[in-house]
Amino acid sequence: MKKQACLYLMLFSVMISGCNSDKPWENLVKKDLSNWTQLNGTAPFELKNGELSGTTVLESPNSFLCTKEKYGDFILEFDTWFDPQMNSGVQIRSESKSDYMDGRVHGYQVEMDPSERAWSGGIYDEARRGWLYTLDNNPEGKKALKVGDWNHYRVEAIGNSIRTWINGIPCADLVDAMTPEGFIALQVHSIGKDTSRVGLLVKWKNIKIITENAADYAIPYEPVIPQTSYLENILTEREKGDGWNLLFDGSTPSGWINAKTGSFPASGWEVRDGAISVNPESKKPGEGGDIVTTGKFRNFELSVDFLYTTGANSGIKYFVDTEAENGSLASIGCEYQVLDDRNHPDAKMGIAGNRTLAGLYDLIAPMNKRDNGANQWNRAMIIVNGNKVQHWLNGFMTVEYERATPAWRELVATSKFKPFKGFGEVQEGRILLQDHGNKVSFKNIKIREY
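The structure corresponding to this sequence follows.
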């Protein structure tokens, strides 16, 4: 990865320095700010000596200086400096609508993050879905920002692809189709009532854009950093090449069966609008129930988008052995908990939160959790490499553990799984989606085996 990043930086430098005058760049900042408008907050913006600055103020929501024009496909470059005490960002393909959160600016934000987390260049979906692309799996990208100094950003938004660079280092590779066009906006982040942060500055200069035949000027694609896709039940070409496979095609229940009967339930589950869902209202006696994959998996990355309704309980289980003990353990396995922590009583049961969302059910409580909430889509990731397992929620790792160790067996012995000999230690098993009697939906279910 490090060698690839260095080669990519060299390529980027050559492309940026060569023939810039021949490219159809347009400056987004003219002699004044007449082609911009401010939305939401009251932080002041000022244009002086070619630099556009914003200043934090008390008791203001996020402030956005927005272009009056909307942009679809483009290449955007800018230089920025921001106080190491503040977080900021640049919105792209963003919107403000009177019927959405009273006009709150929402959409893709290219992150400006001076904290130790170091997610600058990542993609945050402001006032909508939250984090879409974090940098925890891009160590070179985390080093790209020079805190307290001027930094050069490049953003390419072409078709469904959004890619970012800071100082020539690739940071984000996102594929998403939710918003094809919108305005560009500069953010001054809210500081609430924190008087110690009044007057902090964020500055931009050399803000320019290519909109005419933007794809012709894009940096040639190389798979140097992880790609994250939110396309609906579709694999990107990169994902296909990386070995991903869909476990749900978005239109049929093919590949899924009832954990006990071996056929897909006639009622209790439905496939509609690109999702496979528990539908308790349609469930007839003796039908519904947990569903499992027809295939078994050993070492893998599993990605699942899920939506739980208010008060719902469900789960994503793995290492499920439907044949063990004559099928009596068909619904037993390690469980990524899916739960409305705010409204379901199970969140307060167990030990120290080990029955809450994104945890290992009844065994390990989640940490560093970012939940989008009920009736919103969340993304679960389960990564299994031998006996080592990780749970992720919306780009944040919440659980990490190792199976088949003395510590693991001691943990199991204090849980509800104590009666099941060798719990969680099978070498391969099926993936299970749980029917707990509540409305829960799943989509974009894909897996990559090692």
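The CA atoms of residues 118 and 142 lie 5 Å apart.
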